[in-house]
Amino acid sequence: MSYGRRRSRVGRSLLRGPFTLAFLAAGVLSGCSSCRRKDEEPSRDPKFDPTSDAAPRPSASARVPSMSPTELRDVRTRLDPDLCSEGAKRINSLHNRTPTDPIAVDILSTCLKYGNNAWYRCVVSAQAPDVADACGRKYLQPPDEPMK
């Protein structure tokens, strides 16, 4: 190795040094800009109250005046899954749909969860779609006490 060749390497590294430092400084400065303090949390709407929408579930005593003793007994009696299917078919026929119309899947799944004899008797005796829908609103509700 000659002295001249070594000197050219040193010269190239000296020329690269300022560029390297410039890139390094630019990277540090751009990185610090992301470290700066974030803006404060956006102000909340004073009208919004997350607890206001959480209405308490109606208790059993709230439903008692509108039900006869027979209805109260039937509400506590679970319904056979086959009768849930029959009730969903009845609702479809009242709404002028085919008995196996997939729209009744929601009714069927709710019946499988909360179905009871009171709902089934109401749906079977209903003569209009509105009456059958009211049966669902009245009887297909989560129980206040565990069903037996």
Short structural summary:
This protein is mostly helical and 148 residues long. The chain contains 7 helices and no strands.
Pairing-aware structural class of the strands and helices? mainly alpha
Q: How many domain regions?
A: 2
List low-pLDDT spans.
60-65
Strand content: under 5%
Report how far the terminal alpha carbons are from each other. 97 Å
**Tally of DSSP helical segments:** 7
Number of β-strand runs: 0
Mean pLDDT across all amino acids = 75
Radius of gyration (CA) equals: 36 Å
Order of helices and strands: HHHHHHH
Biggest sheet architecture: none
Shape: elongated
Helix content: 55-70%
Polypeptide structure, described:
This protein has 148 residues and is mainly α. It has 2 domains: 1-33; 60-139, no CATH class. Helix content is 59%, strand content 0%. The chain has 7 helices and no strands. The protein has helices at residues 3-34, 60-63, 69-75, 81-94, 105-114, 117-125, 129-139. Helix 4 runs antiparallel to helix 5 (105-114) and helix 6 runs antiparallel to helix 7 (129-139). The longest helix is centred in the first third of the chain and has 32 residues, at 3-34. Residues 60-65 have low confidence and may be disordered.
Characteristic terms for this protein:
single chain, 2 domains, 7 helices, 148 residues
